[in-house]
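Team,

Forwarding the record for the chain on the shared tracking sheet. I've put the sequence and predicted structure together so nobody has to dig through attachments.
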Amino acid sequence: MDQRSLEEAVRSSWLVRDSQAAKKVLSGRADTGLRGAVTGGGHLDAITELLADVFRDAGLPAESVRCKSGVELPGYFRPAKKWDLVVIHEGELVAAIELESHVGPSFSNNFNNRNEEAIGSAVDLRQAYDHGLLGAVRPWLGYLLLVEEAPGSVRRGEPRGGTFPVDPVFAGTSHLDRYVLLCKRLRGAGLYDATCLLASSREGDAVVRQPDPEVGFAAFGAAILARIEETGLLPRRN
């Protein structure tokens, strides 16, 4: 997973988004704001395939690595949910990865939604496993978030308080800073085994920035390889 491949995958994400939005405008079914680019789906497919290749290149058979079909897994609080990348080998759920993105112009409106989705998906699947719905092997969960690097995402400010004081760690942070904290805490709490945060401007050459190496793409890939090794489920090589 070299930097060039990552940047090409992210560039593809922006191109697909722009294409979907344009098609909806031409068809007369344009959604409000940038929603048309999101409801079309598929804008993170190139990044998903990049991650799928890590499993395939390590030796897992292609049929074990699922990106489009066979990605629905049972939940505990809901019947089932589709994950973006699911790896099932010899009848065992090896890994499941969720990919999300957050683009402007408004970052405040959907920030809490992204947090709740990430937390809820992990809790639901963890509970499904604990209640015997996912086999004997504890599933490895990954979460990747692509955030548009724009004035609204990097501008620092103070979070709104309430009846009780906000955790001081959020003082003077941008939405991008808070996503770094989210990814670190999701992993630290054991909800996900690995998390990744990518930032990229949709202008120019889609250069990818990784705000914190601890939740960077290289660390995410290394965690995938570690998972593959620890399962002992790889086919034996002659």
